[in-house]
Protein: UDP-N-acetylmuramoylalanine--D-glutamate ligase
Amino acid sequence: MSYKYSNKKILILGIGLTGISCINFFLQRGIVPKIIDESQKPDYLNKIPKNIQYKLGSLDKTWILESDLIIISPGISSFKPILIKAQILGIEIISDIELFSREAKSPIISVTGTNGKSTVATMVKKIAEQSGCKVCLGGNIGFPALEMLDKKADLYILELSSFQLENIFTLKSKIAVVLNITEDHLDRYPMGFKQYKKIKLSIYKNSEICLINETEKKYYFKNKNKKYITFGTKKSDYYIDYIKENAFLCYKKEKIIDTSKTTLYGYQNYENALISLAISDAMNFPRNKTKDVFSKFSNLPHRFQIVHKKNNIFWINDSKSTNVNSTKIALKNINVQGTIWLLLGGDKKSANFNLLKNDFKKLKIKIYCFGKDGMNIAKIYKNNSIYVESLKEAMILIAQKVVPGDIVLLSPGCSSKDQFKNFEERGNLFITLSKEIS
Structure:
């Protein structure tokens, strides 16, 4: 289907990287859109061409209701009353990913999940490149999908958040995968976790191959015409098998990769690698290329990354941990005789931190809570937690008490937006301070 936009009143919501990529998309086609941002001082205001009309500070009702097509950035909720009204009136609201999917000519691999999606998308990209494929990776990972259209690619990989999936309708993926679904962004969705899960699962709607978790398969699908590949349990096509201390990535009872011969560390990375292996097999990439990538793959920045080691004290930056389950996973990856000094806090996005209580009972752990919801989190773990206002204050206190054999772990389980620009800024502060104060 060919989509025409020339006679439409087009409005873009959000002056971030996504919004700027949408402006450029339409200008390249000779169409001049309007743009709105809820902030009075959006970061990319200076990137807007002079011929573009814009409004700042709030969603202008007049501009919204006179539009034919609205492209919404992921940071803006689709559930605002004015946008619901626009939809009722028949105004089309889509994401930049929907625009991209209408134009893309090469196969697409789509990856979503509460945790691990950036790592899996990056692993698959590296395997594809090793296999001689021209590949572009974009979406939630920080490179706008629409900018990939300007590059020659044999394959596109989309890393997608639930926010981006809210307004996608025609995405036809060669392979789609939901890595996992646990509670997150409950402050965004009026109907809570059920709605969040439904949006995540919509990635499978038009996909050719569905890569799914065996344990939840019965809840996902009724369409027997689709091709399914499963992972997660020993009944699955792909699974992890432990023999003594060693983890093996397996396919149908065959041991494919011995993780001891790779740079992978921790269960989460084994699972990420397992899913990357399944995707690569489905794309017919040579297994030896997959093994090559795993043999030297290092964790992405801010994802369970050992950033400093001194006096046998490890400082681990897991700032990308923005939900409770990601903190659970980080703790599961640690095997230490000493004390874990855990930095927890920020904006908890209505999440339930009681879910960590059982994990803490099994560990020798001291918890330092900081940020907007730090005091409330500290009250849950009052026997072994302390509240301080900032990450810096917490780290200074911890540095005075750690001893050889201990681990200092930043795995906040919360959004960083209360005190930082993003999780990268939070992680970078942790890296700097860990080297200065240790």
The radius of gyration is 23 Å.
